[in-house]
Amino acid sequence: MKRLKILVVNDDGILSPGIERLARNAARFGEVWVAAPASQCSGMSQRLSISGTLTLEEPAFPAPVNGAYAIGGTPADCVKVALKSLLPVKPDFVFSGINFGYNTGYDIAYSGTVGAAMEAVMNGIPAIAFSTQHDGSYDVTDKYIEQITEELISAPPAPGEIWNVNFPGCPLEEFKGILRDRTPAPMCVFENYYSKSVQADGPALLTPYAVQLRDGDAPEGTDIHAVVNGWISVGKVKSMVVNP
Question: What sign does the CA torsion over 182, 115, 19, 106 have?
Answer without folding.
Answer: negative
